[in-house]
Specification:
alpha+beta; 6-stranded antiparallel sheet; 5-stranded antiparallel sheet; 12 helices; 18 strands; 41% helix; elongated
Length: 543
């Protein structure tokens, strides 16, 4: 048209056509102002210029919005899928690939039902997609629990929405997956913990023993029903601080706060079976054994302490009666036995002086041995009572082991045959720190046991092995041995091994032996093989 003069009628016709098209332009946000006095070429050029500028601006805005939306989707923690109307996967965010452990090549462009490795061909999911594509409003999410090939058993909540990103394109379906497995496992864990807490609370309430739990500052966190009844603090356990526990020593003296079992446990110590006295709120006196232990985290940090108290009042009273009876009986037996032993010794001296031999001499020797055995049993009873009462006294001094063992064997001839014993103790073994009378009792108990149970004619070996701070003494026999089930109880009071056929004594010998060894600060144990023999070991400190 350049160089031609456009007629007004033609320009008006073009403007009328543009006005009709303006409705479509306005729908896209394009508005064109055409002055009546502009030439046709200028008007058309203006229209094209405005349309192109507006379309370019809209394209840039749409690209920015799309990039922004894609950035949001990419940073979402929840797995997300975008489907076309044919349920083909258009895109997925990184969270989807990470969660289901899939790659883009396994997902993009494929139908949702055909991703075998994800096993998403679920009837519930298909029903959800059908409802959304059918235009149903407010479709609720679904929950599915499945064993997925790469991620194991999971419970998922799946939400679906239909969106229209572009009015000129087909709608899209957005699927969002929310993993409920951690929440469900957490709820199950909470339920389990609640069950165990209730079970523990019920158990602690039903315990006949008292129980107190302190935090690291000595504040009571928990006190069970028994302890609350004893201390009178059922509603205010926090008032039962470490310095307000009414515990006394067995002698009736007030126990210092620092010496309380709970305070010791909070310093990292362990307390086991400490005998104490307790004054309850109803003014009754109870005897209790108290144990305490520190509570630590896995990393070793001390966070509190647990204290348990067991009422042993009835047992203590029974033991007091038992000790009284034992002391009385042993005293009443010892006096006439001493008189009998003295007369027997006089009679033996007269017989020896008259050179009388034969059956009478043998009978007197047997009587002398029996009286000695009776005196040992009475002494066992006395020592047991003294040990239980805490009055067992020692008078230690340096003792040369070899010389002492040989002297004991020489003086024990009426009871055992010294010739059977082989003393394998070097003179170089250092002296031990021991009470001579108590050490003789230890040796005599072990030597007489070995002579009693060893096979006749076999030797009994006595050996000693020094170390830096102690001497280990061993008595070995070649007897029938001790059954394994008897070994843990061999040093218990009144215990008799089931396999033995000899029943002399009252079962206190090894118990007293253990008591005397431990009173010296030593240890005692036995090693035995059935059919081969036994070795009893004990240690004493070096002088």
């Amino acid at each position: 048209m350049a160089g031609d003069e456009s007629t007004p009628a033609t320009w008006q016709a073009v403007k009328a056509l543009i006005r009709q098209f303006d409705l479509q332009l306005a729908a896209r946000g394009i508005h064109v102002e055409l002055p009546d006095d502009q030439p046709l070429e200028a008007g058309l050029s203006r229209v094209l210029q405005v349309v192109l500028q507006t379309l370019d601006r809209q394209t840039r805005q749409q690209g920015t919005a799309q990039a922004y939306a894609e950035s949001i989707v990419a940073t979402m923690r929840e797995p997300l899928l975008m489907l076309d109307p044919a349920q083909q996967i258009v895109s997925a965010n990184q969270a989807f690939y990470d969660f289901f452990q899939l790659t883009a090549e396994e997902v993009r462009g494929r139908a949702l039902q055909h991703i075998d490795v994800a096993q998403l061909a679920l009837p519930e999911l298909q029903a959800l997609l059908t409802d959304v594509q059918g235009g149903r409003e407010g479709v609720p999410p679904i929950e599915v629990t499945r064993d997925f090939p790469r991620i194991g058993r999971r419970t998922l909540r799946v939400s679906a929405r239909q969106i229209h990103p572009d009015p000129h394109e087909s709608p899209r379906i957005v699927l969002v997956f929310d993993d409920l497995t951690p929440d469900i496992e957490r709820e199950l864990l909470y339920d389990e913990l609640e069950f165990y807490a209730t079970e523990l609370e019920t158990t602690l309430t039903a315990l006949p023993d008292g129980l107190i739990i302190y935090d690291a500052d000595g504040v009571v966190l928990h006190i069970n029903h028994t302890a609350a009844r004893w201390f009178g603090t059922p509603h205010h356990p926090a008032a039962l601080t470490l310095d307000r526990v009414p515990l006394l020593t067995p002698e009736g003296e007030e126990l210092p706060a620092a010496a309380m079992p709970g305070a010791r446990a909070l310093r990292g110590e362990e307390v086991r079976g400490q005998l104490l006295r307790l004054h309850t709120t109803d003014m009754h006196e109870q005897w209790v054994t108290v144990s305490a232990a520190p509570m630590r985290t896995v990393g070793g940090r001390l966070v509190g302490a647990v204290v348990t108290l067991t009422d042993v009042t009835a047992l203590h009273a029974l033991q007091q009666q038992q000790r009284g009876i034992i002391q009385m009986v042993s005293h009443d037996l010892r006096v006439p036995l001493t008189v009998l032993y003295g007369h027997l010794q006089l009679l033996k001296e007269e017989i020896d002086a008259a050179a009388i031999d034969g059956e009478l001499h043998t009978s007197l020797t047997a009587a002398d041995g029996s009286i000695r055995q009776m005196r040992v049993m009475i002494q066992d009873l006395v020592d047991a009572a003294r040990r239980d009462g805490g009055t067992l006294h020692l008078d230690p001094q340096p003792i040369a082991v070899r010389t002492f063992v040989l002297d004991v064997l020489r003086r024990s001839r009426p009871v055992i045959e010294p010739e059977r014993f082989q003393v394998q103790v070097s003179p170089a073994v250092p002296p031990v720190w021991a009470d001579p009378d108590r050490l003789e009792r230890i040796l005599m108990n072990l030597l007489s046991n070995a002579a009693k149970y060893a096979t006749p004619g076999t030797p009994v070996v006595i050996a000693a092995h020094p170390s830096e701070s102690e001497v280990r003494i061993a008595v070995t026999d070649q007897g029938p041995g001790i059954a394994p089930q008897d070994l843990p109880y061999l040093f218990e009071r009144f215990y008799r091994a089931k396999g033995t056929h000899k029943t002399e004594g009252i079962g206190l010998g090894l118990y007293i032996t253990r008591t005397l060894v431990e009173a010296h600060g030593g240890r005692i144990w036995v090693e035995s093989t059935v059919g081969e023999g036994s070795t009893f070991f004990f240690t004493l400190p070096v002088a």
